[in-house]
Amino acid sequence: MTTTFLGDTVVIERAGERTTIPLRVIRTVRAAEGRSRTVEITLADDAVHSVEANNTTAATAFVAAVAAVLPTRPDGRGSVLVRTEPSAAGPPLFASRRNLVLFVTAVLGYLAYVTYLGVAHGAPAVIGAVIGLLPLGLAALAAVQTVTRLYDKTVLRRRGVIVLARSTGRLGKRSVYAFTDAGGNAHQYRSGLHADTLEIAYDPANPKRMASMTPLVLEVPRVIVLVLFTALFGAVGVGAVFGSVLP
Question: 214 pLDDT exceeds 80?
Fold first, then answer.
């Protein structure tokens, strides 16, 4: 674990994650009682972040540097402005490798299946399996997008940070809404709804994950269309790819 003071923020690096604490939300910083290497960072909302320095000298220097520039009146939002996100050296790398392994496994499995079709059922079966990938892939994509959209809207409604985004114009048939997250970063959200403002909920750990706070009932027509699309293209794709081996 490492801790860095970058002038207006304190950055704590742990295995697989990075926590960024704006200086303006810190109320006190001091060495823990009886543990000279441990630094306790207390926020305006009484949340405490404990970090271990390499040695007592480093802990003392860190405390002195941060304490010297603490605001007189810290921002009362405290933990709301603290961001914790995966670091490049941790889980994302593992996750990307896992996804790569899954992708390669799927490709190899498909090639083995096509080879089997060629040997057991001839060229027509192979052609069907290749052509059927398009509708099957479209069906899978529609299903994933539907589930992801509903999941995000449901989870972020309960756990996300809700902000009021303002319309900045249109891009094609969709309106573009802009808002700033708790860390001061600007984001855009596109929606088929046209209004001056729109409530957006975003994941504080990953602000790029966001959803509008419109009632879930408005998703019903979209879900029905996507379910019918998935069923139709899924049936065509499954029939083309696996028709030769289905009873």
Answer: yes
For residues 157-178, average pLDDT: 85
Please report the DSSP string for the chain in residue order.
-EEEE-SSEEEEEETTEEEEEEGGGEEEEEEETTEEEEEEEEETTS-EEEEE-SSHHHHHHHHHHHHTT--SS--TTGGGG-EEEE-TTSHHHHHHHHHHHHHHHHHHHHHHHHHHHHHHH-HHHHHHHHHTHHHHHHHHHHHHHHHHHHHHHHHHHHHSEEEEEEEEEEETTEEEEEEE-TTS-EEEEEES---SEEEEEEETTEEEEEEE---GGGGHHHHHHHHHHHHHHHHHHHHHHHTTT--
CA atoms of 134 and 58, how far apart (whole Å): 59
At residue 90, the pLDDT reads 43
Q: How many CB atoms lie within 10 A of CB 246?
A: 8
Strand-pair partners of 153: none
At residue 178, φ and ψ (nearest 5 deg) are -120, 140
Please give the average per-residue pLDDT across 223-240, as a whole number. 92
166 or 5: which leads in pLDDT? 166
Query: What span, in angstroms and rounded, lies between the C-alpha atoms of 19 and 10?
Result: 8
How high is the pLDDT of residue 42?
93
Beta pairing partners, 10: 5, 21
Is 36:89 a contact under the CB 8 Å cutoff?
no
Identify the weakest region by mean pLDDT among 91-105, 117-131, 223-237.
91-105
Spatial separation of the C-alpha atoms in residues 155 and 133, rounded to whole Å: 32
